[in-house]
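Weekly structure sync, notes
Attendees: PL, DS, HV (note-taker this week)

Item 1: CD151 antigen GP27 Membrane glycoprotein
DS walked through the input record. Source organism listed as Larimichthys crocea. Sequence as pasted into the shared doc:
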Amino acid sequence: MYSTLLVDLPVVPKEDKRSGAWQRVDTRVGGIWEDVTPIIYILLGSPSKIRMESQREKRHTCGTICLKYLLLLFNLLFWLAGGAVLAVGVWTLVEKSEYISLLNSSFYSASAYILIAAGVIVIMTGIIGCCATLKEMKSLLIVYLCLLLCIFLLELIAGVLAFITYQECFPFCYQLDEELRQNLKVTMQLKYQQPGEESVTQAVDKLQQEFKCCGSHNSSDWTDSVWIQENERLVPDSCCKTPIDLCGRRDHPSNIYKVEGGCIMKLEEFILSQLYILGAVGIGVAFLQLVGMMFTCCLYQNLKDDPY
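Item 1 (cont.): predicted structure, written out as tokens:
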């Protein structure tokens, strides 16, 4: 009887309260995610857009690295150019300083000092450029760009002026020629081999031997020389093609240099050729700096766009 009752009773499933609670949590989380997802897409973009942004940042990083290496390479070349300019300035003062005593103005020495100053400025600018590039400092890049621009303008102006001066002077540079004509002949006649004028004597001897000339205009300029008259000579020994003691007692063309125009023409040609070279180098380096300024601007823009 009891067994029949147990069998016949309907089995009622027991309610799982815990399962219902988790279902309600899942439903709420799903609703919240559906509400938040559009906002995330608005802020960050779609998944494909996020992937595109990541690729763009990678390309941006590669571009910045390439620009840094290019700018470092430019600074290396800039250093070498500055060192070359500095070396030329020092060489001009050391090796060609004798000619300064033959000129009435300070044109020659001023040119040498300008070269030395320009070389130092270029080297210092290159150091600033390397620091700005390696440290990626935007403010220092602006300073570097301004220095490059100033040097570019100065070199361009100097180069153009040098070319203008060269075109106006050669072959009839009246200002330079007048200076030399008035001073070189007088210097040779009054100061050569005189006490306290050793620098002039060395300059004249080196000028005549190096340029193979004799006298300011010709060998007859030495006729009125104080030293020549006192020592009964015709020309200094430095006028001789083979300089030996007392060779200046004979002024035959086979013995001394007979150059049309004399040492004035040779010295003019030398100074003007140096002016021409300096002008060409100045303009060449100035246009090279345009490349450096372009790299600097590109790197600055990349760093400016980089949020990190």
